[in-house]
Design brief:
It holds the Pfam family HTH_18. With about 750 residues, the chain is of the alpha+beta class. The protein is built from 25 helices and 19 strands.
């Protein structure tokens, strides 16, 4: 048979679920890793730019500190101090050599700074300017040598008239010897007074400053640098801040204040768009590898997860004989297969439950009939009563009622009879429920129904039972026009009281039938009162004698004696009762191959004495002798041999040739002797015991599902599988195949 392929998509969905569970966290982790790498790289570049901007600002401040140091140098020059004096005598001391030295000194100061156009010392009061080109009148100097555009000269002169430690003026245009230059005037008072007599004036050349920044920054520096003073631009390098908005580009701008002056440096760096591309590529490669590994892992997990379900489904489809709904291409839907299996199991479970209910109902009816017939108490009887829902004990009071449907069966068809029976059952339920009385209604014969009424306390009197019977008969007559007879027995305590009450009700019924049968013949006399010796009790008496159960035998005889003495029978009737008991025991003696002639003669002798007590005593004596004789026959040697026989069967019951004949040959006994000995030891016949052992082993093998039914039959001792199946159905109620399915 071709292997059925399952195609309901369960494996595919399982695989996709595992894939999503594994891949989604991988993608999230990779995205977080890329984001963290990019953020870390941006932070690193920001720190790098910030350090570089601070380095540039410190470089510019170093130049300003250098210029500030020139003020301290010239404040200590002797010639500068002499020129501050009002006396002209000191002016004559500066000869040509000294003049050349001063000019050379100013030139060196400018050249040494690297950013100054020139340096000069201005004496506002004397209106003299000492420059690298000589001594000039201030008006002439700032007109012919270094002339300013606009208000530059006025601002410079006003600032020179005031005290300044280090003053940077706004950027201005200046024509030096006819050449236009952009300069930033720097003023330093050479004496600490409100109106200094000498002021060092330095002119920072913007072009020289730009050259300084170019050399200081290098080729991979910022894209722009702007210097402002109180918000006023001083000079720009590389396009300044304005480039930040060019073509939608983004920049990082750092603003740093000068530590020496009022200047403020704004340094701009480009913001990289492809920052951390190496880390991003590495993360993407790791993500691809992780996705591949995750997909393979998801496939492996899906296979492992689906394997138990797949095995179960293939067992259901191949071994259980299920005919699932097939799809195109030979595929079988898992869900349809499971649904079909569940439906089958539900149907089997329902059938099994129904069988259990039927069994319980049959067991209940059988137990009620046993109680009705008066079976004596067994060891497990109380447990059986509880299992079937009967809370009967020896302290419970009982009364048995009989409903006779014989007249109805003679007058109506079956359909009408069933309707009348249903009406009768409803009438009983109505009457019992109204009085809250517990009862059990069951069938004794087709035309005779029994009701066992039970109570924990004794009924008030017989009138209560009579009222129930009358009410039931009246309800039946009112609803269907017929009135079956309802008879009742005496109220008795204990389980045997059920039987006693039943036989009283049965006697009433027989008397009623006898009276009706003899009305036409004119016979109106009552039948003679008979002794109480039910056939069912006689059967139990015989069985207990045969097995030597003296206690139960004496209990039965005591009950018979007590019941008959309560009836106040005549001596002749009692003698007849005891004679019947003796006849029963003589039959048992004959069946056991025990000489009964002596017992019969002794009983006949005692019967002629007309002494009931002596007769009862002899009955007890004979019964005791029979039970002791049977017990003596079961001597230890015989029991030991029986145990050996039982152990041999237990060891070889799986052998196909196990039989009574083989046991007889093995133990050198006859076949009948082996059968009798085996039943005495086990309580059941040989073949029932052998079949029971084989069925228990077969059930264990079927539950393990290691072998087919035919092989199991051979293992437990059956050469023919059909014989095994019949035996299994007889003992278990179901076929071996069905039992195997129930164990799945």
């Amino acid at each position: 048979m071709a292997r059925i392929r399952l195609g309901g998509g369960t494996f595919r969905k399982t695989f996709l679920s595992y894939t999503a569970i594994l891949i989604i966290p991988i993608l999230i982790f990779c995205a977080i890793n890329v984001y963290k790498g990019s953020t870390e790289e941006q932070r690193r570049m920001h720190d790098k730019y910030q350090e570089d901007a601070k380095r540039i600002a410190d470089g510019a401040d170093s130049k300003l500190k250098l210029l500030k140091g020139l003020g301290e140098v010239y404040a200590g020059e002797e010639w500068a101090k002499k020129l501050m004096l009002d006396a002209d005598v000191y002016d004559n001391e500066i000869d040509l050599l000294k003049d050349l030295e001063i000019r050379k000194d100013l030139q060196n100061a400018a050249y040494g700074s690297g950013v100054l156009s020139f340096a000069s010392v201005v004496y506002p009061a004397k209106r003299i300017v000492v420059s690298p080109w000589g001594f000039y009148d201030s008006d002439y100097f700032f007109t012919k040598v270094a002339s300013f555009e606009g208000d530059g000269r006025r601002l410079l002169w006003n600032a020179a008239s005031q005290y300044h430690i280090f003053k940077l003026l706004p950027q201005t245009e200046m024509k030096l010897w006819g050449e236009m230059r952009t300069v930033v005037p720097v003023l330093q008072s050479l004496e600490v007074v409100n109106e200094p007599r000498a002021v060092l004036v330095l002119f920072i050349d913007s072009s020289y400053m730009a050259s300084f920044f170019r050399e200081y920054i290098g080729g991979t520096g910022p894209t722009g640098l702007s210097v402002t003073a109180n918000g006023t631009p001083v000079f720009e390098y590389g396009g300044g801040i304005g480039r930040a908005d060019r073509r939608g580009e983004s920049f990082d701008t750092f603003t740093l204040s000068s530590q020496v002056s009022e200047w403020e440096y704004k340094i701009t760096y480009p913001r990289e768009r492809m920052i951390g591309i190496d880390n991003m590529l590495a993360s993407l490669m790791a993500a691809v590898v992780s996705i591949v590994i995750g997909t393979m892992s998801a496939y492996l997990l899906a296979k492992l997860s689906y394997r138990p379900l797949g095995i179960l489904l293939h067992k259901l489809s191949n071994r259980a004989g299920i005919d699932p709904i097939r799809q195109g291409g030979g595929l079988v839907s898992e869900y349809n297969l499971i649904e079909t299996s569940i439906d089958r199991l539900l149907n089997e479970n329902e059938s099994l439950q129904q069988a259990v209910q039927d069994y319980k109902s049959a067991a209940r009816s059988n137990m009620l009939l046993r109680l009705l017939k008066g079976y004596f108490k067994e060891e497990q009887q109380a447990d059986r009563l509880m299992q079937i829902g009967l809370r009967y004990t020896e302290r419970t009071y009982f009364c048995t009622m009989l409903i006779d449907f014989r007249p109805i069966y003679e007058s109506f068809d079956m359909e009408t009879i069933r309707k009348i029976e249903i009406i009768a059952f409803m009438a009983v339920e109505k009457s019992m429920s109204a009085r809250r009385i517990d009862y059990q209604l069951f069938e004794v014969t087709n035309a005779e129904k029994a009701i066992i009424v039970s109570a924990e306390s004794p009924f008030s009197d017989e009138s209560a039972i009579r009222e129930i019977a009358a009410e039931v008969m009246e309800d039946i007559r009112a609803n269907c026009g017929s009135k079956p007879e309802v008879l009742w027995g005496t109220v008795e305590q204990g389980l045997l009281g059920i039987s006693k009450s039943y036989y009283v009700a049965s006697e009433k019924l027989h008397y009623l039938l006898f009276s009706k049968g003899n009305e036409s013949g004119g016979v109106s006399s009552l039948p003679a009162i008979e002794y109480y010796y039910p056939t069912d009790w006689e059967v139990q008496l015989i069985n207990n004698l045969k097995i030597g159960n003296l206690d139960t035998w004496m209990q039965i005889v005591d009950e018979i004696r007590e019941e008959n003495e309560s009836r106040q029978l005549s001596e002749a009737c009692i003698a007849k009762l005891i004679s019947s008991l003796m006849e029963t025991m003589l039959r048992v003696l004959n069946e056991l191959n025990i000489d009964a002639e002596l017992v019969a003669r002794q009983f006949a002798s005692k019967l002629r004495e007309h002494n009931p007590d002596a007769l009862w005593g002899y009955v007890y004596e004979v019964g005791t002798l029979i039970c002791e004789r049977i017990r003596y026959s079961n001597t230890p040697s015989a029991m030991e041999r029986g145990n050996d026989l039982l152990q041999y069967v237990n060891r070889h019951y799986t052998s196909a040739d196990m039989s009574l004949k083989r046991l007889a040959e093995e133990f050198h006994l006859s076949v009948s002797g082996v059968s009798k000995m085996f039943k005495e030891v086990t309580g059941i016949n040989f073949y029932d015991y052998l079949c029971r052992l084989r069925m228990e082993l077969a059930k264990e093998l079927l539950r393990e599902k290691k072998s087919e039914v035919g092989h199991v039959a051979q293992l437990v001792g059956y050469e023919n599988v059909y014989s095994f199946k019949r035996a299994f159905v007889r003992y278990e109620g179901i076929k071996p195949d069905e039992y195997m399915l129930l164990c799945l």
